[in-house]
Hints:
By secondary structure, the protein is α/β, with parallel strands linked by helices.
Amino acid sequence: MRMSHRIASGCAVAALVLTQLIFAEVTSITVTLPGNEVAQTGRLFIAFTQAPQTAPRLTIGDDPSPRTASPFFAVDVENWNGEPLEFSPSAGFPLNSPDELTQGSWRVQALLDVNEVLSDLDAPGNRFSLTQTIALADGPVSLQFNLSETVPAEQLPEDTDLLKFVRIRSELLSAFYGNDIFLRASVLLPAAYETGSSARYPVLFHVAGLNGRYTRSQRLLSDDQFIDYWLGNDTPAAVIVFLDGESPYGDSYQMNSAVSGPYADANFTELFPYLVEQFPIEDLPSNRFVSGCSTGGWVSMALQILYPDYFNGAYSLSPDSPSFQAFQLVNLYSDDNAFTSASGMIRPSARATNGDPRFSIADEVRMEAAMGRGDSYVNSGQQWGAWNAVYGQPDEQGRPIPVWDQQTGAINSVVANSWRPWDLDLYVRDNWRSIGPALTGKLQFWMGDMDNYYLTNGLRYLEETLNVQEAPAADAHFTWLPYHGHCGFGTQVHYIDVLNDMAERAARD
């Protein structure tokens, strides 16, 4: 599910309400590449932000840039040789055309996304222009951009005594895509571990929120509460592996998908064995655990449920919905439309913890459609696009078949029914007799009862299902936090409580 790095969400939707009604006259936008370039194919973005706005969504280097800040416009280019290109957008958000920009001072930048194996717009090889500050006032304005800059090749961060970084080529995923696909992770070692020691420790596989990268582990090193715990003499020693969320379609959800590829198999047969060889991991089911929040919350419970013998416990915080009866506020099985309810009300996609809606599903899907190649939200690498890729079936081009129409919100019931194998609530009900003995006592959940993305209802369905299982009983534990939103549980719950519980379970089993 969404986390703080989500591209152009709240501010973009908020920009739908224009406070100025004097429009600029942008007569032309021309984009070029430096000379002697090979032909380029990708999606070309032009993004604008008001000069006072100093915190755009993404940056390259130290200079904040307005790329992917609201508003932005985009178009696909194919075999472009770098000659002057008259930019004519096929999509934009929240505006449809640069002619709808209001007069004033803007910062603006162009970017060409050519990387086909990473969805991140800051992916290596992507081209971008230097940021310009322009004045849109009375009279026609022409803009020119030269994509003079290139996102550099990937380089792993430097290892420290405690934190190590790995990147390996996946044979399975490379064969699936016909292109080199790499798996990445960072590994946090126990403070007491000495190089060359034969000691082995329980392992926690940590899964991030939407599109979270393996480098997020670096933030823990500056978390005083966590470091005090990690370095404490009484802390049970463990290894934490931070998995990477990136894939060509956005977050892979670490699953085997007909569209996004065999990520689970790649982890189990390639990445995890490599980590066991390189690091002091006790490679036993009793010593393997998985956790995460948001997207990571769904992945952690899904990995435990779908592979019940492999892990000894899942710690799932604010998970994406395990039931498609409550896909946020949409019932995929009985609703006709995702954008409006049966009573005709516009469905929100996000809310404040006081219940105030922030933006609608329709707006969010329109934003993703403007980002995605072919003007399709399923190609955006963002939240709704990633869900379609993970749960969906491929069309003739290998792209996910949309579960609903991005213009009208009309749900394709055939596609929705094809998603049933990913409905974890159904899976548990249908398979408890075979999976129950290996799952009992292994599932723990935390959820705010005012989750910002309406995920509370979906977890309620799973709670009801688990509570009635017998022979054996599920013995699942649910913690519901009143007036609490999405994630934000803090270091104590997210890491310290989890690691302490892991140590007890590993010692007991």
